[in-house]
Amino acid sequence: MLQVEDLHAGYGASEVLTGTTLTVKQGTLVALIGANGAGKTTTMRAISGGLKPSRGKVRLNGQEVQGLDASRIARLGLAHSPEGRKVFGPLSVEDNLLLGAYSRLPRFFGFQTRAQADLDRVYELFPKLKERTKQAAGTLSGGEQQMLAIGRALMARPKVMLLDEPSMGLAPVIVQEVFRTIRRLKEEGITLLLVEQFAKSALEVADYAYVMERGRIAVEGTPAELARNERVIAAYLG
Predict the structure, then answer these.
(1) Is residue 224 classed exposed, middle or buried when 0-12, 13-18 and 19+ CB atoms within 10 A define those classes?
(2) How many domains does the chain have?
(3) Does residue 172 lie in a domain region?
(4) CATH number of the domain within which 74 lies
(5) pTM score, two decimals?
(6) What is the pLDDT of residues 30-83, one digit of tens each?
(7) Which PANTHER family match (predicted)?
């Protein structure tokens, strides 16, 4: 479903990704873990079109998408819930969610009607958002904003969903709630690539995992395999 091959990308003269290769099969959850600065978020941005790769391939459902605009990649079926949530603060919760569906619904007549089933699904996943439909997104708590960011991505009905650091800055009880939702999305068959600072939590939900170091994949395997790897234990699970 998602294939990344020998990906190189960076910022200005600084190359962050130096040959990243990974695969996310349909219906699986793949975790990408690593230290701060390893290149995880840069990988996500290069996949979703927020950053143009200098070299390498990104294939979404068999189609090469590297170098395309983010809006075009979104229309092809990829949704990105970014690091730091990036909600539109002045807009209401519901308007933020509707923006997530913009790439696939009619621009004028019928937009709201056809989006309603997706809104209902998001509100069923996150009841707190339903209580705050008209509230400005910028006034939500950090946990509620993360729920909103995930819900906004789901509104696109993506073929592949990228989740970048969904637990960042959240209280432990909210982190548990977010991971319960991630488990549910996995059970529903959504294809997921997860970047997560808490390696143990990521490996508990993943089908497969990659460890990134200095802009490329250093170790990969099933969660059980990585849990036995001394290098991974020492750096991330100790």
Answers:
(1) exposed
(2) 1
(3) yes
(4) 3.40.50.300
(5) 0.91
(6) 999 998 889 999 999 999 999 999 999 999 999 999 989 998 999 899 999 988
(7) HIGH-AFFINITY BRANCHED-CHAIN AMINO ACID TRANSPORT ATP-BINDING PROTEIN LIVF
